[in-house]
Automatic annotation (TrEMBL):
Organism phylogeny: Eukaryota, Discoba, Heterolobosea, Tetramitia, Eutetramitia
Keyword Phosphoprotein: no
Protein name listed in UniProt: Alpha-ketoglutarate-dependent dioxygenase alkB
Organism: Acrasis kona
Keyword annotations of the record: Dioxygenase, Iron, Metal-binding, Oxidoreductase
Family: Belongs to the alkB family.
């Protein structure tokens, strides 16, 4: 027989009291039990996502080095079928808080894994498709620590899902020190040329043509010393700065598709414990608004996926 709301909440409260062993009676008064219960319910309702990815073999990152400034590029990191299944999952309607689209002036994004903040990242549960992707990355054994100045391979816990339409790009920016100095970009649906510059307005020092299904990894100087950005344009023109020309030649034009989707995968080393109190809710809102104002374009509105 299904439990009614009240008894479920009581059960949960009892379980919580037993588990925490009443750490602090003063703090207990401000615990938001309904928020905890909501979170537990959502977790138990996790929809099964069929496997998106096939078995990926281990790779040696040094085989994919494009440039000594810390740039690696893996073409066809995922297959067409994997790309399509991943996009299908990305666009599945969701009502979860952590799965909200935020509309900025030049792109829409979903902030997955947590809200980065100088005090530490407030983590939240990740969608199943991201967990599967992280597993693929882990199986690929990309030994980032061997190629840059970090002690351990990052545990990737912060993912930005970006959607650009009509040839929009992203302003020149650095990802900054909230993260370990390594960023991975999984590029989908359209090619785009990502450019690296010493300052946001100086000439481009080097650029990478990101093809759909490819994974760009940048670390070291490319992460720390260069700004990266993508121009607003319906097409990209290859010039001498391009470090992965392969069969292309200077002057070649590559058309972008109407929509491009990317996943920027990073690691926040400092993660804050999630608590369930009114105070924490306010802190979360404060951190979120700090984060929104810190990203390159101004947030215009926040929308929930229909
Ligand atoms: O969408 C892209 O490929 C670039 C994303 C990016 O630069 C970022 O998320 O910081």
């Amino acid at each position: 027989m299904p439990k009614d709301k009240h008894s479920e909440s009581d059960d949960f409260r009892y379980k919580f009291l037993c588990n925490t062993h009443v750490r602090s009676s003063t703090r207990m008064t401000s615990i938001d039990f309904s928020a905890m219960l909501r979170e537990e319910r959502l977790k138990s309702r996790v929809k099964k996502v069929r496997p998106i990815f096939d078995q990926h073999p281990p790779l040696r990152l040094s085989d994919f080095k494009l440039d000594p400034r810390g740039v690696y590029y893996i073409e066809n990191f995922i297959s067409i079928k994997e790309e399509q299944s991943l996009l299908d999952e990305i666009y599945k309607p969701s009502t979860k808080d952590e799965d909200k689209w935020v509309t900025l002036t030049k792109r829409r994004l979903k902030n997955l894994g947590g809200t980065p903040h100088p005090d530490g990242m407030l983590s939240c549960d990740m969608p199943e498709y991201i967990k599967q992707l992280l597993k693929v990355l882990s199986n690929a054994h990309l030994e980032v620590k061997d190629v840059c100045d970090i002690h351990d391979n990052p545990s990737y816990n912060q993912i930005l899902l970006n959607e650009y339409i009509d040839g929009r790009g992203i302003s020149f920016h650095k990802d900054g020190d909230l993260y370990l100095p390594v960023a991975l970009i999984l590029n989908m649906s359209s090619p785009a040329l990502i450019e690296f510059r010493k300052t946001p307005t100086s000439t481009t020092e080097f650029s990478v043509l990101m093809k759909p299904k490819s994974l760009l990894i940048f670390t070291d100087d490319a992460y720390n010393k260069y700004y990266h950005g993508i121009k607003d344009s319906d097409f990209d023109v290859v010039d001498e700065s391009c470090i992965n020309m392969n069969a292309l030649a200077v002057g070649d034009t590559i058309k972008r598709n109407n929509k491009r989707v990317s996943l920027t995968i990073r690691s926040c080393p400092k993660v804050l414990e999630r608590k369930f109190s009114q105070h924490h809710k306010e802190e979360e809102a404060r951190m979120r608004s700090w984060w929104l104002s810190s990203i390159s374009e101004k947030a215009s509105k926040s929308t929930e996926e229909a």
